[in-house]
């Protein structure tokens, strides 16, 4: 029988909640965006940083790209 979590169970979305907390406190709350286009650009930069250069304690202080691709990633221009 598959695991079915009850409504409001923190196991359902704990990883997504952690991600969005980081996005809000490290990007969104720090900038007054002019419009949706500037927000989209900032989020693209942030997620590139989050995956390629930001070290994560959960991953033994490696980046997600290093963990999932098994090699250091270089930043795209």
From TrEMBL:
Residues 11-64 form the Integrase catalytic domain. SUPFAM superfamilies: Ribonuclease H-like (SSF53098). Gene3D superfamilies: Ribonuclease H-like superfamily/Ribonuclease H. InterPro entries: Integrase_cat-core, RNaseH-like_sf, RNaseH_sf. This is Integrase catalytic domain-containing protein.
């Amino acid at each position: 029988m598959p695991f079915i979590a009850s409504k409001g169970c923190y196991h359902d979305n704990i990883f997504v909640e952690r991600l969005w907390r980081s996005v809000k406190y490290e990007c969104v709350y720090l900038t007054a965006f002019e419009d949706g286009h500037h927000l989209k650009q900032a989020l693209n930069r942030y997620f590139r940083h989050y995956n390629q250069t930001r070290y994560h304690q959960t991953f033994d202080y490696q980046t997600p790209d290093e963990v999932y691709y098994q090699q250091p990633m270089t930043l795209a221009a």
